[in-house]
Amino acid sequence: MSFCKDCISGVRHEGQPEGKIEQIAGIECYVATPSGDYPKDKVLLYLTDIFGIPLNNSKLLADDFARNGYKVVMPDILASDPISDEIFNSGKIDIFKDWLPKHGRETWIPVLDKVVAELKKTGVKRFATTGYCFGAPPAFYLALKGESHVTVISHPSHLEVADLEEYRDGAKAPLLINSCEVDQLFPKESQAIADEVFGGGKFAPGYERTYWDGCVHGFAVRGDMSNPKVKAGKEGSFKATVEFLNKYL
Question: Which InterPro entries is this protein grouped with (predicted)?
């Protein structure tokens, strides 16, 4: 259970977020709502990396999903304790030895349960998740609990073979994994194992994996858009995610 230097590096994306901060069941959430008509019974839960709601990149990405017709709710799964902005690009991965033990499943499971329960009260019947790095295990949790209907994870962290097998055997939500060339936390070996576990029709609900050459862990959120390969990876993984949501949600 660890993180890598790419977990705290990347490029900040410029832009003014269009969503707003709301309290849902007492949980701080960033909410991005489509400007036009959209299905009120569907919500995309955006499960963040370790920078959480404060990272501008994540809010802009949530806005982009809203532009594609999905209401997005980004709950604070970090217990109001995201990795601080000053750590961005610092290389100080030693911070994780103190931070990680404070952010186990017992901290984010109640958050997700409360938010999902409250959204159901408003008429939401179908949930999808898009989890980045730290947000991958929470996405798996919601699928295994039967709460989410579509799962997308990008450059996931903290998923072992046993987690993949548990998802295959116990979840019904179709799964998309956006992977890349250089990823210490989900390397090519792990990508191949995922294909073995889910591919070839072994996971009936549906399985797809994208692979982006020239990209490193974090590319889907914090990628350097001046690099053509990284730009292709970020934009391509976003497009693949939207298409997957359109197909299954």
Answer: AB_hydrolase_fold, Dienelactn_hydro
Residue 62's nearest CA partner among 241, 246, 227, 228 is 241
Query: Other C-beta atoms within 10 Å of 216: how many?
Result: 22
Domain boundary assignment for the chain: 5-248
Angle at 52 between CA 47 and CA 55, to 5 degrees: 120
Distances (CA, A) of 31 to 73, 132, 150, 204: 5, 17, 19, 32
Give me the pLDDT at residue 4, please: 87
Residue 2 confidence (pLDDT): 66
* Average pLDDT value for residue range 81-108: 92
Tell me how far apart the alpha carbons of residues 145 and 152 are, in angstroms, rounded to a whole number.
16
Do the strands 20-24 and 27-32 form a parallel or antiparallel pair, or are they unpaired?
A: antiparallel
Could you please state the CATH topology (level 3) that the domain comprising 5-248 is classified under. Answer: Rossmann fold (3.40.50)
Q: Which amino acid is located at 37 in the chain?
A: D
How far apart, in Å, are the Cα atoms of 224 and each of 12, 87, 172? 8, 18, 35
Q: Give the burial class of 5: count Cβ atoms within 10 A of its Cβ; 0-12 exposed, 13-18 middle, 19 or more buried.
A: middle
pTM: 0.97
Three-class DSSP category at 185:
coil
CB count, 10 Å around CB of 206? 15
- pLDDT value of residue 95: 86
Q: Per-residue pLDDT tens for 200-227?
A: 999 999 999 999 999 999 999 999 999 9
